[in-house]
Amino acid sequence: MLDFIISLLYYTVQMATPFLLCCIGGVFVQKAGTMNFALEAGINIGAFCAIVFTVLSGKLYVGVLCAFLGCIILNLIFGLFVIKLKANHTIVGLSLNMLLNAVPPFILSEFFPSRGYLSALHVIDLSKMKLDVPILRSIPVIGDIFNNQTPLTYFAFLLIVIMTFIFYKTRFGVHVQVTGENKGAAEAVGIHTDKIKWIALIISACTCALAGMNLSVELTGMFSLNIASARGLICLAAINCGKRRPVQSCLFGLLFGFSRALQIVLSQYVGSNTAELINVLPYVAIILVFLVTELPAARKNTMRIFREG
Question: What is the rounded distance in angstroms from the CA atom of residue 154 to the CA atom of residue 147?
């Protein structure tokens, strides 16, 4: 039983990494007054650029740089329509999500042997992606859970601390909060609200790139179609359930990581048919979390709307 729990918690930390990275960046965008529906596209393009340019150049650092560049360009396009042209953020975000599901297979089919995936395992050594930390190695149970994780997993927890400090303890963080809560009041005191939104989008772009690289570079060494698997949309749910607060949103991201870990661990003990059914666990978790977080707020709402028959 202890081995089951340790394995479950180990995979929870591993599976939660892209959620944590995506959530902590997405919080800044939403708190600044814009819902970034392109998070899913950001994860996909980050994973895609990282592998493609690693394969083309033979250098991992080139793929990493291109992943950041690709995500930043994507978010600049999103910002152009939403911030500059005042388009609906939902429509723009969903359009970019669909576009980024169509572009990778086209490029792969035109320039590479397969349209479904691209491997960079001849450049990336997955055995070197997990870090053996001596301090953690000597701690019972805790070491079994947190040791031998990937660099971005450790960095994700550090980033949460850094970004939470920025969010609550810096002038920029205060400006982000004021911009989202009352744009008119923010502009009245001299805050350049559009500039704040652009910076928030760049932050989100970088964290989405990291999430994509965690999935493609660190965990698999390859890109496959729709590698994000709705993680960006799940992160939107986590941010909303966390009331657009960094720590709370990341806790919900950790919960969704737990649901994916439970899926992985349980599939080792059941048959293939049952394992397919277990695949719905992350999505069931979303529904349950929304029910738990939103029902109390709905009950407090005393407003009633009456329609004449």
Answer: 10
Planar angle of CA 238, 28, 244, nearest 5 degrees: 40
Beta-carbon neighbour count of residue 253 at 10 Å? Answer: 30
Where in 47-181 does DSSP place strands (E)? 117-119
Helix axes 39-57, 193-213, angle to 10 degrees: 50
Between the alpha carbon of residue 253 and those of residues 93, 241, 286, the distances in Å are 20, 10, 10
DSSP characters over 287-304: HHHHHHHHHHHHHH----
- Sort residue 116 into left (φ over 0), alpha (ψ -120 to 50) or beta: alpha
User: H or E stretch including 267?
Assistant: none
pLDDT per residue as tens digits for the range 94-111: 999 999 888 999 999 888
Structure tokens at 281: 């666990």
CB–CB of 38/97 below 8 Å?
yes
Q: What angle do CA 272, 273, 275 make, to 5 degrees?
A: 60
Q: What's the whole-model pTM score?
A: 0.91
Q: What is the pLDDT of residues 270-307, one digit of tens each?
A: 766 676 677 777 777 777 777 777 677 667 666 555 44
With tokens 């999103």, the residue in question is 78
Q: What count of other Cβ atoms lies within 10 Å of the Cβ of residue 166? A: 16
- The secondary structure element, H or E, covering residue 216 is none
